[in-house]
Amino acid sequence: xxxINIRPVSFIFLILILSTxxxxxxxxxxxxxxxxxxxxxxxxxxxxxxxxxxDEYQQNVQKKxxxxxxxxxxxxxxxxxxxxxxxxxxxxxxxxxAVPSLAVHLGHDLDPKFPFTDSxxxxxxxxxxxxxxxxLLKKFAADTHSDAFFDAHTEFYKTVESRMQEVVDKIDLKxxxxxxxxxxxxxxxxYIGLLNGGMNFGPxxxxxxxxxxxxxxxxxWQADESxxxxxxxxxxxxxxxxxxxxFVNHVFDENIxxxxxxxxxxxxxxxxxxxxxxxxxxxxxxxxxLVRAAVCRYLYDHQKVEQLKNEFAEQESRGFLWIDDLFIxxxxxxxxxxxxxxxxxxxxxxxxYLKEVSAQMPDRLDQYDSHSxxxxxxxxxxNGDQDVDPNIKEITFVFDRPLSGQGRSINESDHSGDxxxxxxxxxxxxxxxxxxxxxxxxxDTEYGFTLTGLAFKTRDGFSLKNYTIRFRTRK
Length: 475
Description:
By secondary structure, the chain is α+β, with helices and mostly antiparallel strands.
């Protein structure tokens, strides 16, 4: 299949509207098929790694809840399971999805659902370490009287679950069978990770008898004025994404030899951007790209026009520069089910396509970069200045082309010594060539923050490459 060059999202979107590729038959799902839950196993494992200092579990988006956790559990920071979590972080790189993956492999009594192996719950754990962690986690639950903490938050959990359920009820579960051509022998489950912040995971439990449990563990990164989590329709693609992992990952792993010779050639040009999203190798990145293209197919098949447009823009900004072509390739799969009855049977065709992509990655990267906005100047002072007036109330960034002017995306810098000065206020100039960010500065202080491409993008969807500004205020 010939390579389709990088193009503005508005153009690919026009292609979609005019496409003659037939859509899958839509089915209405049973609203009771998935029940959104706050699960004590997920919360307990997250609390332990939070105590162990795992950075990704320190996001504190749900401030009141995170504060309650810290106050209640802080005296157990040296518990044996916390010490083990610290050691496994250092030795095995335990973190991110490995945490909920272990949690869902435990029963509600915190005993393993079946004897662990070196690959279950996750190869990063190893069977011996996972079993030891599970035993110590159960002891931690008893020693801390964790049920008292969870019981005290029952009403809070009910509110969270009710709000998430409103989104969950809109998911068409039957689409998965229609699209993939087969269903795992198991159940769908959705849990809300209240200490996850913006992280979302899709673990799966495969029992010795091949029965499966599919999970989407969704973070809670938005809150209303009262501090309660908010879940909008923007969460829908994320939930769809996490369930897609249960259909894609094992099929990709079974066919990984098809991709091995050229996978690194796709990954290397975007490695820095992928690592910043915790995708540390080409295998994870390629599996992720299949999952993300499948999300686009779901949105297209259900005529989610605006969400589809946003999804393309976001995935390209994250470095998946082949997402639009992969989307069209999967559309061809949908329209030729006589020859390709299952997604599994289509994998050799996908592998052949991605081999072509590998040869084109430098050109794709250059093309995308040429369309992406750049910061031409910092109006208030120069990046890196060490004598900045602490009385400045806003910092103005000048771009080399107009932006969409919809929202902002700003992260703390990755330099541990930097303070974060950004407040809530911001405003665009009428021509969308400038954005002024409200700040609160103190004398003699090192500051830093990063503007990202999740919100700072052009009108046709090309995103800013992450831009970090660092400066020091005068005494």
